[in-house]
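Example 3.2
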Amino acid sequence: MSSQVRLRLLPSARCLFDEPVQVKVSGLRSRQLVSMRARSTDDKGVLFRSSATYRADGSGEVDLRRDSSLRGSYVGMEPMGLLRSLRADALHKKFYKSDARNPHVVKFSVHEEEEEEEGEGRTLAEETNERLLMGEGVSRIPVRDGNIRGVLFTPPGAGPFPAVLDLYTFGGGLSERRACLLANRGFVVLTVALYGHDDLPKKIREIHLDYFEEAIQFLKKQAKVGSKGVGVISLSKSGDLALSIASYLPDVGATVWINGCSANVAFPLYYKKSQILPALMADISKVVPTESGAFNCKYAMQNPLAEENRATLIPIQQAEARFLFVAAEDDLNWDSKAYMDEMVERLRHHGKENFESVCYPGSGHYLEPPYGPYCPSSFHGVLGKPVLWGGEPRSHSAAEVHLWKKIQDFFRTHLTCDAAAAKAKL
C-alpha cells in the first residue's frame, strides 16, 4: 500500500446499518485514475463485491459525494453506490443478513488503475466499515412464549416507546434486521416467525390469526411499551397478513403494507378454529421464464376481483387502524400497484380516510431499510425457483432511503405513547 494515500470513512468507520458514510481518498496524484472497491461476506458466507473507477481532482482527492464513477458496477454520482451495488459472483443471490448481533462489515479499498484497463492494480489504501444492526444499549431477547417464536428488541432508556410487530416477509426462518433497526430509532419491536424457526414446523398448510393476536398481547405487556395501539409492518406475503390483523383483531393502531396483496394469498386463514378467508392462488402457467434463469411472476396471481375469487379479499374497510400503503411500480413479484389502487378505491367507496399511500417508480419488490445491497433476483421459497424482483438499482435505493424515514414518521404519528400506562407495568 502507498504510505501517502489515505482512505477515510466519515464521520466514522463505525456506524449504524441505515446510516450513510462519506468515502474520501486523499494523497493521490493530480487527475490519477483509481478503482474504488468494496467487499462483504453475508451470514451464509457468500462474498459480495463491487467496484467503480474514479479520477482524482487536481489536488489528488476523490470524494464519492462529489465525484462521478466513470465505469464499473455503476456510472455517475452515487455517494453510497459501492454499498448498493455489492453483488455475488453467482446469479440470483440475495445478501443474507439475519442475526442482528452480526454487523455488516464492508472492506473498502482503493487501487491503481490504467486508463483503458480494469486490471487488479496495486492496493493504495483500505478501510473497514463496521455497519451495526444493533445500536448501543438496544436489548435483544429471543422469545419462546406460549406459541410465539421470535426476537424482541427494546431501545435503551425508560421509555415509554411505541410497539411494533414486524412480520418482515413470509418464509421460513426469521429476519432480525428491520426489527432491530427500528428499535435503534425508539420502537419496541417483536419480529416473529411462522414456520422453519426453532421448534416451529418446517412447512404449513394454513395460517391462524390467533398467533398474531397472541404476539400483540405479548408486546402490549412489555414494561417499556406506552402506545395504546400496536403497529404492524410487513412486506410481500406478510402484507395480506398485516391487513387481516388490522381488519379482524383489536389493539392495532397503525399498519404498514409494503408490496403485498389485497387478498389472502396462498394459505387459508383461520381464527378461533374457523376459516375466515380462503386462499387466492397463483396460475403457474403465467410464470414467465427469462434468459437469466429467473422467472417473472408479476401477473401469475389469479384476479382477486373476479367473482369466483372475491371471497379472498380482506375486509380492510372494517379496520380502525391507520394504513400506509407502499407500492413499487416495477415490482415483478406481483402487481402491487394494482392491489394498492384497488384498496384505496374500496376504502374511499366506504367513506374511509384512514390511509395514505405512496408509489415508487423504478423500484422493485424488496423495499428494505436503506444502504444494503440491491437484489435483482433470488430464490423464491414458495415457487422453488429464482425469480425477478424488479427495480432500477439507483431508483430502488433512493426509494428505500425515502421510505425508511416515512415509516418511522408514520408510526410516531399514529402510535402515541402514554407514560402513565407504561409506568403502571413496572
